Amino acid sequence: MKKKILFVINTMGRAGAERALISFINSLPREEYDISLLSLINRGETFDEVPEYVTILNKKPDNRSVLSFRGKLALIYTTLRCFFYHLRGVTLIGYFLKNLWLQCKKHQFSLDKLLWRIIAKGTKAPEETYDVAVAYLEGGSTYFVADSVHARKKAAFIHIDYKKAGYGPALDLNAYDKIDRVFSVSEEAGNSFLQLYPQHSKKLFLFRNIIDKERIQKKSELPLPADDPFMQSTADIKLLTVGRLHPQKAYDIAIPSLRMLRERGLSADWFVLGEGALEKELKRQIQSEQLQEHFILLGSKENPYPYYRLATLYIHATRFEGKSIAIEEAQILGKAIIASDCTGNREQIQNNENGLLIPLTSEAIADAVVQLLQHPEQKTAFEKANAAIDLSHKEDFSAFYELFS
Predict the structure, then answer these.
(1) Across all residues in the chain, what is the average pLDDT?
(2) Model pTM?
């Protein structure tokens, strides 16, 4: 008899965790597991990539963007529906106000983190009992699996620097007490989690992102449309960053860096793949720096991999990470990488071996780009080193399979 697994995720948008989830599902032997999937927000392009043998519990899965205007309306609708579902949201008013006060006190206001508990509590749980239920993201999916799902064993994944992202016991309540195993995608992400939850050290295991190398390489060879801004660019240097338009990704620091590069006489354009709430704000900054034709927000792309292949350098200058799937994709495609010296990035980039780790300043980014352009032999060495990295991480599966014992 097949073992029953339920995966729960917050949304099915086109972000790194969703892509890693699809790769994870694809890596499980379909003849051994009966797999179900539930997205708390019934929206996202990644619904299209779910294997046909997986049971999607969402009614009429909506494959449109989570970050579009209509996607934001879907979030509001879901929150209101969950709030009034058997009036469960009323019981959380004290929780909401307490955490709102704590966030304001710490200058870490994050509305989505406040709403996940409401969405989790107001989402109808499946009636079935599963062998293992997996919350594949922090926040809503973890709360839902911990409190509402019937399963013999429960697991939760940590993809971020838990402390810097603003999570903690006040938000989580006792969710992790009800989780049998916690999987962190990097050692640093795990250490950050343990700073807040040292009592759960024996539950914590390393489970790095699952990456479909063959699929990525194959899709990278597909051509880009001739009218794509990336193809229209006449710049000698094409820089690439992949990530949502969010303060974590530090685009406010990247934009002045490009101005500095161009002031040094370099023919450089910078392209960003991603959507997010900061789009209008970033466009204003781009205009104030007079970089409208050179710092280009391309939005989300169904196939980002040709951009990696064609880019001169990949840059991942962020404030913090858990473990970046974008970096791993750049490594698979053999790119030289410049990354900020922060949590997560330090585990993926060994300075001067397969990339450059730099302080998160505009000047440091510009200097690193110039360094690699002036020393092409170093750039080539980084490219070869990244292409040779083994990102299969097959050994990480043993701790997951033990849940079925």
Answers:
(1) 91
(2) 0.77
